Amino acid sequence: MTQLPWLSLIIWIPLITGILFLFINSAKSKSTRHFGMLVSSLVSVISTVLWATATTEDALGSYAERVTWIPTLGVDYSLSMDGLSGLMVLLTGLIMPFAYGASMGCWKAYKNKNEARYFGCLLIIQGSLLGVFTATNFFLWFCFYEISLVPAFFLVKIWGSAGKDRSSMRFFVYSMAGSIALLLGFLALAGATGSFEFDEIAAQSSAGNLADLIGSNLGWFDMPIGWLCALIFLLIFVGLAVKVPWVPLHGWLPDTYDHAPSPVTMVLTGLMFKMGLYGLIRMGLPMMPYALPKLLTSLLVLTVFGIIYSAFAAMGQRSIKRMFAYSSINHLGYCMLGILSLGVVTNGDMSLEIQKSSVLGGVMLQMFAHGIIASVLFYFVNAMENRIGRKILMDEHGGLRKVAPLMAGTMGLAVFASIGLPGLNGFVGEFLIFKGVFALVPWAACIAVAGLLITAVFLLRFLQVVFHGQVGKSAPKFKDLSLMDTILVSPFIVLMVILGFFPHLLLSGLNPVINNIIRAMQF
């Protein structure tokens, strides 16, 4: 399979197909919808095969592609797939057809709005996300990153519910502000190192040369080198943290989730959040040894505050979509806590370096687990909305288990996975993160663990009120999962259980890239 440019194929097939769909001026087109589903599924199958054949140490990077692109800037069109990018390619391959199928099941809710353009936007997002997760230099990565934001904006603005204009504009403003900060930070870093390549910048960091290069090539900034490194890191961090999102840069998220079509929310929470975390691992970690001594405590305080705040905010929501939105902020806050804890100076203590490997592995597993769990939860929100024809409010429903036992059981399993029940996929990543953070930053771990308890409270309350409470007015008209619902959800439910018991299926492919990243942070 290595003879063909497989990575380019999985990027450009959905991108080009999606762009062509934008020129179809038809409100209803079953053939377009089904052809788009075929394209999305085909790309997903190829993505899964690529991951499955590149998860051993010998195969990492075996699908690398490099073509001279802009020689005057020293920029190549370069793609590669190591363990981390392979994991994200797999996640994209799983979630995009899932969201596509969810959209096909609820299209009647969008009335006469153009169907082909909606599905075209989803295909463009799929291709651009695969580009984000396989690009090996910032220039190409940033192009795909920006492309993904455009269709996401229009999906909210055109196909969203009441309040969509304000939500989409807030999404746009936050995204553009973050992109500007990210661009400034990385251009400064590229100007200092003379390269846009992630691997070359990591190599300079590992050699201990990064601060000297920044000082010599950016010396016209009238500030100490340590603070200059901190400023560059902060620009990169803020630009990417907007997309996680990280409190206090989360203002765009609750309204966007609430007003976006639920299948679009599946993509936002399951995949587009991961661009920020992925970028921090690729771009932020090499800067940490130089920048975080100045910033670490402040960023950790904000992160811990965000974990507790988002848990309490979720507890106070009537709208189930908004509750799950804050729950996502909470769960990805643990990933941010883990990433920042890697900036702790260990002075060569090998036991602490091992804990850093544990944390980074936990972050990667949590990224994948959250994508699976959150997309399933929002799929069920979408299914519930389709059945009653409006948004789901916590206090308007009850006793749905009696009329929809299959939905109650499968959603209950997804909720317990989100809580982090041992034996399900949400447990392993959180366990590895907290295991390492307790060793590296004990005070932060002790406070953040309260977020786990609060999360359990509001999610169990949700199950009790909506599925096990007193029978509500909506129960008689509520239907259980259809055959199509079962077909779409079943693979994800199976994955939650399998990866809960056999996390090594993912970790075995991640260990080489984890070791490389941790080694690059030592000098």
What does this structure look like?
- The protein is an all-alpha fold and 523 residues long.
- The chain has a domain at 1-159.
- 73% of the residues lie in helices and 2% in strands.
- It is built from 19 helices and two strands.
- The chain has helices at 6-21, 30-52, 83-105, 115-134, 138-159, 164-193, 198-206, 210-217, 225-241, 253-259, 262-284, 288-315, 320-341, 350-388, 405-419, 425-440, 442-467, 483-501, 504-520; strands at 65-70, 75-79.
- Strands 1-2 form a two-stranded antiparallel ribbon.
- Helix 3 (83-105) runs parallel beside helix 14 (350-388), helix 5 (138-159) packs antiparallel against helix 11 (262-284) and helix 9 packs parallel to helix 12.
- The model has no long low-confidence stretch (mean pLDDT 88).
Write the layout of secondary structure elements.
Layout: H1 6-21, H2 30-52, E1 65-70, E2 75-79, H3 83-105, H4 115-134, H5 138-159, H6 164-193, H7 198-206, H8 210-217, H9 225-241, H10 253-259, H11 262-284, H12 288-315, H13 320-341, H14 350-388, H15 405-419, H16 425-440, H17 442-467, H18 483-501, H19 504-520
Antiparallel strand pairs: 1-2
Strand content: under 5%
Helix fraction, binned, reads over 70%
Number of strands: 2
Gyration radius over CA: 22 Å
SSE class: mainly alpha
Q: What characteristic shape results from the CA principal axes?
A: globular
Distance between the termini: 38 Å
How would you state the average pLDDT, rounded? 88
Count, helices: 19
Low-confidence stretches: none
The neighbouring-strand order within the major sheet is 1-2
Order of SSEs, N→C?
HHEEHHHHHHHHHHHHHHHHH
Tell me about the largest β-sheet.
2 strands, antiparallel
